[in-house]
Amino acid sequence: MTTHETSRAEWRATPQRAAVLRALHVRDGFASAQTLHAALVADGVPVGLSTVYRTLRFLEAAGHVDVVRDREGERLYRFRSADGHRHYLLCRECGLSLAVDAGDVERWAVRIARDTGFHAVDHTVELTGVCARCRPGRPGRPGRRPEEA
Amino acid sequence: MTTHETSRAEWRATPQRAAVLRALHVRDGFASAQTLHAALVADGVPVGLSTVYRTLRFLEAAGHVDVVRDREGERLYRFRSADGHRHYLLCRECGLSLAVDAGDVERWAVRIARDTGFHAVDHTVELTGVCARCRPGRPGRPGRRPEEA
DNA sequence: GTAGATGCAAAAGGTTTGCAACCAC
DNA sequence: GTGGTTGCAAACCTTTTGCATCTAC
């Protein structure tokens, strides 16, 4: 996966792209383009929002990140682990994300595809919840989202 | 629970709302607000886009429709069937939607929740593909027409 | 030197909202 | 009459794109 990929346009190393990659690594949960951009700017890295979007799109096309959508439809990005673990359990409070084994779901999807005669069946599986640490006490004490930076 | 629901503002019957409901019924696959609005206008029903959106939001809040997002992030609405069948296999070409049995996935989600200690785990499961009728080229397999569930 | 990258601002989509006019009850 | 409803337009948000400038190779 670290192959040079000369198939598409050359990837030119720039400080901005390095910064986006770093920002993605640091918070290894999901993050939106806007959040990453804000974090970079806050860190004193002068990078344009367009560049963040372009870099993320490139990473997405290259298969280096997984993308999910939050409730509002915003895209969230996360580095893809080694092979194909692409399903996550995401904490709605703090953004913590756990890769989960979705073998059962993969097999289920294949079975559905076969049973229905559909082709090129793709699946989206996202789990969200509240992690043990964010376990809501009572309504009066909201946990405030610690992911906010 | 899903009875009269007088809990929120009264639902006042209007021609526009009736039209949106009708439009949703007619195409009982998923449809976007924009698509519904266009269809209504084309049918000579003068209804504003805002009203379509507002009606759909109301239906969503009342739990009468299921909502998924297509690849571009557009919201697609569909009447929710009686019980709780909320997972669909959607044809990317024609929009045909099949309700699929997701019992396995439901159980898988519950198991994941238990194993991870997460609370209030919610799941999103969407299957998309190309139905037999829309299958491009590839002659030889007279795909059976899946029945709308 | 040059192909490619950056950043600004403006555009593009989809969705929501402010507000005056409207209509069902 | 009153209060919910409508519709237009403008506001909002996220994401994309045009273009002149800049830079990594």
TrEMBL record, chains A, B:
Q: Do the record's keywords include Repressor? A: yes
One Pfam family per UniProt: FUR
Show the coiled coil region(s): none
Any idea which UniProt keywords this protein has?
A: Cytoplasm, DNA-binding, Iron, Metal-binding, Repressor, Transcription, Transcription regulation, Zinc
Where does this polypeptide localize? Cytoplasm
- Report the superkingdom from the record: Bacteria
List the Gene3D superfamilies.
3.30.1490.190, Winged helix-like DNA-binding domain superfamily/Winged helix DNA-binding domain
CDD domains the UniProt entry points to: Fur_like (cd07153)
UniProt record, GO biological process:
negative regulation of DNA-templated transcription; regulation of secondary metabolite biosynthetic process
**Quaternary structure and partners:** Homodimer.
**Protein source organism:** Streptomyces ruber
**What main location does UniProt list?**
cytoplasm
Q: Which GO terms describe its molecular function?
A: DNA-binding transcription factor activity; transcription cis-regulatory region binding; zinc ion binding
Q: Which family does it belong to?
A: Belongs to the Fur family.
Question: What cofactors does the UniProt entry give for this protein?
Answer: Zn(2+); Mn(2+); Fe(2+)
- Put simply, this protein is called Ferric uptake regulator FurB
Q: Name one GO cellular component term.
A: cytosol
The residues listed in the UniProt record as binding Fe cation, with positions renumbered to this chain, are E106, H123
Q: How is its cofactor bound, per UniProt?
A: Binds 1 zinc ion per subunit. Binds 1 Mn(2+) or Fe(2+) ion per subunit.
What are the binding positions for Zn(2+) in this chain?
C91, C94, C131, C134
SUPFAM superfamilies the UniProt entry points to: Winged helix' DNA-binding domain
Tell whether DNA-binding is among the UniProt keywords: yes
Q: Show the PANTHER family listed in the entry.
A: FERRIC UPTAKE REGULATION PROTEIN, ZINC UPTAKE REGULATION PROTEIN
